[in-house]
Design a protein that fits this description.
Elements (H helix, E strand, L loop, with lengths): L1 H15 L8 E6 L7 H16 L4 E6 L10 H7 L4 E5 L22 H8 L6 H9 L3 E16 L14 E4 L2 H9 L3 E4 L5 H7 L4 E5 H6 L8 E4 L4 E9 H6 L2 H35 L3 E4 L2 H10 L2 H22 L3
Parallel strand pairs: 1-2, 1-3, 5-6, 5-7, 8-10
Antiparallel strand pairs: 3-9, 4-7, 4-8, 4-9
Helix pairs in contact: 2-10, 6-12
Amino acid sequence: MKRLAAMAGALALAATIAIPAQAETTLRITLQLPLKAHLGQNLLMFKQEVERESKGDIKVEIYDSAQLYKDKEVPQAVGSGAIEMGVASLTRYVGEIPAVDIFYVPFMFNTDAKVRAAVAPGSPVRQPIDDAILKTGSRVLWWQAYGGAIMLSKGGALKTPADIKDKKVRVFGRTLGKFIEALGGAPTLISGSEQYVAYQRGTVDAGMTGVSGVKSRKLWEVMDTITVTNHADIEFVVVVNEKFWQSLPNAQQDIIMTAARNAEAHVRDEMANIEADAYGAARKAGMAVVELSEAEVDAWKAATKPVLDSYLGESGDLGAQIYKAATGLK
């Protein structure tokens, strides 16, 4: 009887112990830019929606300013599962997927309409790229607009191809390097998080970036002139490890995908305002902002024609397929 009483007491005690709640899902996201940059703000929008709609079951942690990984390290880190999510410049996949550099073929996407058509989910330009990235172990959740590429310099504008000759220029992609070589310059591949120091130390004479990056990184402290070339369209992708993605319940996948679509549409629609604000901030900080004439743009186009041949030669059948699709856009 004593033994039965003891067992009953033990069961009663166990019944009073709360069963622990199911562990929440954590999404860690690595970002090379400061959180105040528009890509960081876009991630915050995503985080807020996901946490709200999941009622706290999904927690989103953002590690900005390359705290965990530099931009060039993101594809491998996410693809291997070292981190659940990451933001990377699209061109960081060029080693495995040379065709991604279609966006850096000079003046290929020279209107907002063409850019929007190319990056639309399911488009004949974007979908093959998303499919190819999936094979690396990462799923593209959304594309983040970063605007047109501009040139940075100190002591004068870069208005003609001759102004690039013999200059060391910071670039952030292989095809952009070919662009500088075609102009007679020496390209130097430098991560976005390291370009401030490169300009400050004189590692390079000039550089290229998106104008929003000039504002978020205060590049006016080390460079004094922007030349508005818009010779390339800069795109970032937000990716999630595919094995991790497949481990999530369908309900959580739905919440994340809905938030991703909303974040993508928002940043795309706001890009013109973001760039206008950045140009305004640059001028206020004392930078000269130089617009090119139509004749000057034509000179840049003529000088960089060989870059297309280089792209098609290196990107294989996928590159040819995507280029054909891109030329059909209006």
